[in-house]
Specification:
This protein is of the alpha+beta class. The protein has three helices and three strands; from the N terminus they run αββααβ. It has one domain.
């Protein structure tokens, strides 16, 4: 994603990029919109803290990896 910095939840909306949420347990990947992600957490909520709170809907593993998705063409 170039030199864009993603430290807090609102950074995804600021950069107009959607996050991918990946389970390290079963490798399940969920794509949510930046707005959906923002509604899940506060604007200034750190990505590390958000990742610790997420739970996989398939295997139940707690914790996730959050990364920006490239824009669709």
């Amino acid at each position: 994603m170039g030199n864009k910095s993603f430290r807090v939840v609102s950074d995804f909306m600021h950069h107009k990029v959607d996050p991918a949420i990946r389970c390290p347990g079963c490798k399940h990947v969920s794509r949510v919109t930046g707005l959906q992600f923002l509604r899940m957490f506060r604007h200034n909520y750190g990505l590390g803290d958000a990742a610790k709170m997420l739970r996989c809907s398939l295997c139940g593993h707690k914790g996730a990896e959050i990364a920006p998705l490239p824009p669709e063409r």
